Amino acid sequence: MKKPTVITAEQAVDYIKDGSTLCAISMTHISACETILKEIENRFLEKGHPRDLTFVHSCGQAAMKMPGGMTRLAHEGLLKRIIGGHWGQSPLLMDLISENKIEAFNLPQGQMANMFHSMALKEPGKLSKTGLGTYIDPRIEGGKMNQRTKDCGDDLVDIVVIDGEEYIRYKPIPIDTLLIRGTYCDENGNLSTEEEGMVLEVLPAVMATKRWGGRVIAQVKSIVKNGTFNPKEVTVPGVLIDNVVLAKDVFTEHKQTFSWYYDPAYCGKVRVPETAVSTLPLTERKVIGRRALMQVVPDSIINIGTGIPNDVIGPIMAEENVNDCLSVTVESGIYGGTPASTIDFGIACNAEALIGHDRQFEFYNGTGVDFTFMGAGQLDQHGNVNATRMGNKAPGAGGFIDITTTAKNVVFCSTFTGGGLKVSFDEEKGVTIEQEGKFKKLVNSVLQISYNGELAKKRNQNMWYVTERCVFRLTEAGMMLVEVAKGIDIERDILAQMEFVPLIAGNLKITDPCIYKDGAFGLRERLLKQQ
């Protein structure tokens, strides 16, 4: 029987040659092959090799300014090109991109996750309407995130027409080496991911790599005896794995996520009381999340994106005791529970179901969720939203484009201005702007089109833009101010702080002040009344 060989991290890096294409499967630091990635970095810094790599990844794999994950590869010379869904949590990689030191192609995260299926099947590419009208569209930017990429002469997407309809073709990407992670493997190399916080797209990526004749290297905590696993619990059969690397220090290089080594409540092993979830202080982020949640209806399937939504929506739902009224999902494949926030995005405490990351995007790109809550950087007069380029920094789309393209209702969550904004809240007085932000977010034209307002109108999509002081809605005629908080002066606090003049609803509403109170604000009662 074919079995993988057990090797050291140093031997694993020997297999990675200059100029090769390396792919890794993880999200944030969850399931990151830290032992191997650390050795790649050490080898390059000591010997200058491997170098000129192309790094392929569907999800962002870093933890802001913290070391580890794909930030290990953020060295000029080590990387030639990066093809990924998101790198917003790796400032060093964003610096390499903004300084034109590496080529950078950004593709929608869900399209990349599902590209592994197309590649494994030897298809000529993946066809999708996702990305049309955004910076992914080859007629706009083609996903090229800096001038060096625009000058490289390569295109990873093109437009094809089938039965009179336009699609983007996401071209296949040959993979030389794939890094995956499991909790254990047995003596025959069968891989278990039982303590990992996500299922991810491990198996499809393995299949795609095998199609190209590439090498699959798995990092695990330890090797166990054959017969330990229920066959249904094997994530990757051993015959599809070439090499196994044991983590050198499981407490630092094989953590469940960046913030902790292992918590069984985040992989479905146990359930903990909801009181274990901390209550958020009353800030503008919490107020925005509360107002955003007032849009939902009972029994909705919702998605929570990065930024303000991921940081506040889950904890607010737990505090309001509405987890039985709504079905929360996260792009990593989570259903139910309370999602972790910031650098631990993608896992949830007390999840009801964990499915593959690629399978989740089949739902998002196909059926579409009822409501998605997304962060945003800019909004323009046409309803276009920029969530992917902030000045010369380009964090990438992640699952943003996939999810917002097909969701029935899109709720963007953003502060009205940015950079030093200070706000206070009171049930009686409403909202007081203590200090205005330094830069405007509502602009004449966004820096990059991550969400196309005109196409949204053609899809009959409902779109709201929720801030701490007011709410806008996208209408056929354009962006309309539909709600204002008590205490806010429309001329001074809204119109003077934006670059375009919006439509103003004839029946302009006043925001319910319940969202400014301490303790639960009554979301459960609101939802139960609608049933």
Topology:
Blueprint: E1 5-7, H1 9-14, E2 21-24, H2 34-47, E3 53-57, E4 79-84, H3 91-98, E5 103-106, H4 109-120, E6 126-128, H5 147-150, E7 157-162, E8 165-170, E9 177-181, E10 184-186, E11 191-192, H6 202-211, E12 215-220, E13 222-224, E14 234-236, E15 243-246, H7 250-253, H8 284-293, E16 301-304, H9 308-320, E17 327-330, E18 334-335, E19 338-339, E20 348-349, E21 353-354, H10 357-365, E22 371-375, E23 378-380, E24 385-386, H11 400-406, E25 409-413, E26 417-418, E27 422-426, E28 430-435, E29 439-440, E30 442-443, H12 453-458, E31 462-466, E32 470-475, E33 478-484, H13 490-494, E34 503-510, H14 523-530
Parallel strand pairs: 1-15, 2-3, 2-9, 3-4, 4-5, 9-12, 10-13, 12-15, 16-17, 16-22, 22-25, 23-30, 25-31, 33-34
Antiparallel strand pairs: 6-8, 7-8, 10-11, 11-14, 17-18, 18-21, 19-20, 23-24, 26-29, 27-28, 31-32, 32-33
Helix pairs in contact: 4-6, 4-10, 8-9
Summarize the structure.
This protein is of the alpha/beta class. It has a 10-stranded mixed beta sheet with strand order 21-18-17-16-22-25-31-32-33-34. An 8-stranded parallel beta sheet has the order 1-15-12-9-2-3-4-5.
Walk me through what this model shows.
The protein is an alpha/beta fold and 531 residues long. It has 14 helices and 34 strands.
Radius of gyration: 23 Å
Low-confidence stretches: none
* Distance, first to last CA: 58 Å
Helical residue percent band: 10-25%
Strand count, sense and barrel status of the largest sheet are:
10 strands, mixed
Strand proportion, as a percent range, falls in 25-35%
Kindly state the number of beta strands: 34
Quick one: overall form? Answer: globular
Kindly name the structural category.
alpha/beta
Biggest sheet, spatial arrangement of strands: 21-18-17-16-22-25-31-32-33-34
Roughly what is the average pLDDT, rounded to an integer? 94
Keywords: Transferase
Organism: Candidatus Pullichristensenella stercorigallinarum
Protein name: Acyl CoA:acetate/3-ketoacid CoA transferase
Family: Belongs to the 3-oxoacid CoA-transferase family.
